[in-house]
Amino acid sequence: MESVKDDNRCFACGKSNPIGLKLDFEKRGEYTVSLLNFDKNFAGWENMVHGGILSTVLDEVMVKSANNNGFTCVTAELNVRYKKPCHTGMEYELKGKVVDIRKNIIITEGKILNMDGKIIASGSGKLFIINPNRGSIK
User: Fold this and answer.
1) Long-range contacts of range 103-109, CB-CB < 8 Å, 24 or more positions apart?
2) In whole angstroms, what is the distance from residue 35 CA to residue 33 CA?
3) Residue 125: helix, strand or coil by DSSP?
4) Domain-embedded: residue 32
């Protein structure tokens, strides 16, 4: 596998991407979390965030969860379940965690929650480990 380099232009978290989400993440216990508010430019229908954007941020929080445990990964598989509408102009919390580590694959889970703690969308992922110095669940 070829090596990867962070050029700070990731659509989800890159600070140098002028049209990106510029998400900030922090580790809280077993979770990696971020707060976000979707601009109307990320709508599919009026005032509703596009499902592809929701899957993007779920993917990102799951990959960041692996990063926060010392792994560099790329997504091998992503499954998303949409449960409630996600509205533009409202604050949401992203939460992700590493569930299991298998040989060269990390199993992750992610959620988008409204500020009442209700799940808007959830996801699971299989991430392919690409760094030679493997981390561990911390």
Assistant:
1) 104/128, 104/129, 105/76, 105/129, 106/66, 106/71, 106/73, 108/62, 108/63, 108/65, 108/66, 109/62
2) 7
3) strand
4) yes
What is the span of the domain harbouring residue 74? 26-129
**pLDDT tens for each residue of 92-129:** 999 999 999 998 999 999 999 999 999 999 999 999 99
Query: What CATH code is carried by the domain that includes residue 124?
Result: 3.10.129.10
Rounded to whole angstroms, the Cα distance separating 116 from 43 reads: 22
For range 126-138, the mean pLDDT? 77
50 in a structural domain: yes
Please compute the mean of the pLDDT values over residues 46-61 and round it to a whole number.
97
